[in-house]
Known about the structure:
Layout: H1 2-11, E1 21-23, H2 27-39, E2 53-55, H3 57-70, H4 73-85, H5 90-102, H6 119-131, H7 133-139, H8 152-175, H9 186-201, H10 206-235, H11 241-253, H12 258-279, H13 284-294, H14 301-321, H15 334-341, H16 346-355, H17 385-400, H18 404-417
Parallel strand pairs: 1-2
Helix pairs in contact: 1-2, 3-8, 3-10, 4-6, 4-8, 6-8, 8-9, 9-10, 9-11, 10-12, 11-12, 12-16, 15-18
Amino acid sequence: MVNKMMEVLLDWNLDSKLSTITVDNCSVNDGVVQSLVRKLKSDELLLRGEFLHMRCCAHILNLIVKDGLDIIGDGLERIRNSCVFWTSTPKKIEMFEAEAQLSHINSTKKLCYDVKTRWNSTFLMLETALIYKGVFHRLQFRDPQYKTVPTDLDWENAKLVNEKLKIFFTITELFSGTKYTTANHYFPKICEIRLYLMEWILDSNPKFSEMATKMMKKFKKYWSVIHGIMGVATILDPRCKKDLIDYYYLKIYGKDYFEEEVDKIVVLFRRLFREYASRGSNDHSEQSAIEDSMRKSDLPKDFLLSRRKKQKVEDELNLYINGDLVADSENFNVLSWWMTNGHKYPTLQKIAQDVFSIPVSTVASESAFSMGGRIISPLRNRLHPKLVEALACGQNWLRAQYQGLNLILNLVVLVFCFL
């Protein structure tokens, strides 16, 4: 796999332009990326490959959520079996709907059952089943074959878990789709997840406290890798800069430690800035102006030139960092802002070009919630691989066309922003 990736990178002359690779969080991918790093020239990688390996946000959230669902184990199975039982035949569906009307339930949601490898379907199944929990209780007296009636504790646990998983459901939808949002949107969402987990760990229910502790363990492993580059993306958002990091880190780390953690992000940002600045060069007219101004000085030319460049770079960084925050608005577009203001911050504009293009998720919306990967239906698992590929691509293109116009407009903005 590594050799094939290198072949493609070399064919397209991308080996010296690679900033990050976003992959699922599994040991096989870890080995692939490490092997790839050894084959690439480290001095051509961003911070010598420090951020080459990016973990997929959606995949990490799936692993975390799995622990959340495991906590209601047998109860979840009883609710699942109940949903399957009352949707198994038209007669049972009719009987269930009639009982719902007698119970004066106004919801029009249809009862559904889930696919175990897709946790969003489990979330939606529980969300609907909770509406009809009284109906399930009444129906146990109507049909003697109905043996898997959920207990009151099952419903209580299902309600609590579903409430807690709703934040993951919403954020996973953000992390995936045919039109991906820019990297600056992810940092606050990831911080919110951490704050929720911190709150859940203190839950008076020991079962849910244990659940949150397990989820936090997996979350921290991901956090240690991703929060740095996401923090950089936040600083590059002129509406937030360092202020949003201060806001969340004060809540996460407390007043005694948050400044130390914020400084780590700022140091990383400055390291990144210096590396990009060292790769840049002055145009001929600016170079001539600098040399003219140094002719009257007795100091070494190289020293003066280096000092002048360093001062110019620092001025750009300080001008941006210390400048006022841009007012937020519903239609604010961070790419458009950098296109308009890039002439004031040429080095930062180059960083924004690379950071905002980082894909934080590897999956599209239809597979973002799957813990088992993209699944081919039993009716299609005997098709020729070429035909399966054609179907997959065709499905992707058809779904994307509805967002095509907006996607094209954003691409145009991105291209012009960094020309």
